[in-house]
């Protein structure tokens, strides 16, 4: 089945220790998104890639970076995780038009000790 | 600026009851898209429905139905004869018409269906 895969599902890191979350897709979609979702809150868009074009949200902290080496893979790097970065991180993909629904992965739950 | 409001934070009903989840949106765009997503305890958001701003037809899919009214800027979601498996957080979302889809989510409604 075509899908969005996120690894790992659970990630524990230490305060200040860099961490990378990965997302892959078999849908061949142009657009890939990273969302942060804190407990009992709505997902918050961090950035998205439209093919290789990177689009950062204005309020995304510099601590968050992303890479998309090819169509299938996208990575979220958190350079110096703080306690406030503990959250569920959701990856999503879509075809390029605004009316197309997004397909979400299962998420990676990040714990910062 | 676009905004989505889901005033009901939590709803709890007994199985087989009908339940309606409210969604009110704000946008200055004349063309826009509205979505409902379901987030079960497993965490993955699942797409349920899309509506564009020019299509005010209501839709029914099995036990699910959606009522879109531009006059009140609302896009409400009704589950008929609810089941325990319907328990989840439901998000209403709005996207602008141009370019890659950037979803503005409401705060979500946590729906609990009790046996």
Question: What secondary-structure arrangement, pairings included, does this model have?
Answer:
The complex is a heterodimer of chains A (113) and B (115).
Chain A: E1 4-7, E2 10-13, E3 19-25, E4 31-37, E5 44-50, E6 53-56, E7 64-67, E8 73-78, E9 87-94, E10 103-104, E11 108-112
Parallel strand pairs in A: 2-11
Antiparallel strand pairs in A: 1-3, 3-8, 4-5, 4-9, 5-6, 7-8, 9-10, 9-11
Chain B: E1 3-5, E2 10-14, E3 19-21, E4 24-26, E5 32-39, E6 46-52, E7 59-61, E8 64-69, E9 74-79, E10 88-96, E11 103-105, E12 109-114
Parallel strand pairs in B: 2-12
Antiparallel strand pairs in B: 1-4, 3-9, 5-6, 5-10, 7-8, 8-9, 10-11, 10-12
**How much strand of chain A?**
over 45%
**Main sheet of chain B, how many strands, which sense, barrel?**
6 strands, mixed
- Cα-based radius of gyration of chain B, to the nearest Å: 14 Å
What's the order of the H and E elements of chain A? EEEEEEEEEEE
Amino-to-carboxy terminus distance of chain A: 36 Å
Global morphology of chain A: globular
Q: In this structure, how is the largest beta sheet of chain A organized?
A: 7 strands, mixed
What proportion of the residues of chain B form beta strands (DSSP E)? Answer: over 45%
Helix content of chain A: under 10%
Counting DSSP H or I runs of 4 or more residues, the number of helices of chain A is 0
